[in-house]
From TrEMBL:
Coiled-coil parts of chain: none
Annotated signal sequence range: 1-18
Any Gene Ontology biological process: phospholipid catabolic process
Classification lineage: Eukaryota, Amoebozoa, Evosea, Variosea, Cavosteliida
UniProt cross-references to PANTHER family, sorted A to Z: PHOSPHOLIPASE B-LIKE 2-RELATED, PHOSPHOLIPASE B-RELATED
InterPro entries: PLipase_B-like (IPR007000)
One Pfam family it belongs to: Phospholip_B
Keywords in alphabetical order: Glycoprotein, Hydrolase, Lipid degradation, Lipid metabolism, Secreted, Signal
GO CC term (a single one): extracellular region
Name this polypeptide is given: Phospholipase B-like
Amino acid sequence: MKTTQLILCLVLLTVVNCLPYSVVSRNNRWGVVSGRRQNAIAWAQWENKMASTGWTELTVETNGEFEDGSQAYGAGYLEGWLAHEEIYNTSLNFRIKDQPLVPEASQFPSQSLTWMRSQVSQNLDSRYWKHIGLVLQQFDGILAGYNARAPADRKWLDTDLMAIQLITELSDINRTKIQAKPDEFDLHCSSLVKLSADGQRLFAAHNSWTSFTWMLRVYKHFKLNFEEPSTVSYSSYPGVIPSIDDFFITGHNMVVMETTNEVFNDTLFQYVTPQTVPYWVRIMLATRLAKEGKEWVDLFSQYNSGTYNNQWIIVDNKKFVPGKGVSPGALWIAEQIPGYIESGDQTETLRTTGYWASYNVAYYPYIYNVSGYLTESLRSNKSDSLSHSKCPRAQIFARDQGKVSTMADMKDIMRYNQYQSDPLSLGDACNGIAARCDLNVAENGKRASPFGAIDAKITEASLAARQISEAVSGPAWTWQPPFAWTKRWNSPHHGQPQVYDFDWQTMTPRLSS
């Protein structure tokens, strides 16, 4: 029987020097003491290896003897307390103050949070809203843990923490009030699902494209022993609950990834309201609870916020048998726009072509057309770059995916950028599987920016079963010089290494069985 009255909450932490600490709460007042306490509400390990690998690793496990809400709050408190400095630096690196909501939309985040909390309190018997509530309790825990250690001039309100959760959704919220076109240096990604030619291996890989200012990274492992327990490992950022890359490996042997689709049609944003569930909450609910691809899509589709509109790739490794290939349900693809999500089982495509590639162009014809891709391609004279089959990365993936049969091959293709010599890149450093837009020069008519692929993460069926991945932090440097922060780039990079020349790391959760 679970403890329902919290008299003493104990949360074990392990900081960089590997000394154990406990967080205690008497009468709901939390504090940190040294030493491991056996009756902890959760346990954590924090390994800051930014200087040597470009990653910090966070492992959190909760104690199922406590009620679910206390576990969620405790898990959040751990991260906020451990990562308080990195969370503050992340807010600076995300440049939150440089991209505020327009005045007409400034109340949207608080209205959204208030509405979700009201739905949780009004639907106590709902599985869906219970787990929405657990995400919000984790949010509250992060805020409390952060404020417990932050100096007086850095204390946060919930709106401050909400801003970094919503970082990928802010521009879409603004578009409910103003017309705007996506920036070419907006969020992008590359993703590849590859079935080896002999049918023995099934790989899933992702690299995240964004500003290099975002490269203060945390790879997270969570084991939440709720009444419906969940185990999830994923790449992320300090104090940010979801991945936002996105790359997750779940305890149900599924891999969840996405690449962002453009929405050129401003009229769609009429469907974006605070009375929906934002991406950062829906993604955690679906990824924690779903046991198969269709269930994930069904959960994620409820209360669609229409913000952070992506192509979602859900790989169910349970539907793969080495040597026999994939069975229906192995690959689900879902695409979101404001007001609508289209999805389908694309296992047959994976079986017949051997791969599924994703690269920021909508796949489903209805999503493509309603999003305004065709109209924009005619207006901008960029028909090939906005074509699902003819854009540079589509052609590079189609040409090179057949060479992939090992983990080393996957590492090569996900870090691929030979823009100087590859005709498919059109002489543009942004047109690689791993963009390096910082290498462009104005003399060639290309915009240069510290933007591109900031990492790569790869797993395969046999590793995903144990939530293991191979991950590398920083821009690709196999064929290009390593990226370094120099005076050329007047961009915040608090807490980041000066040079990103790191090797691949094996990310393995250190959790109890």
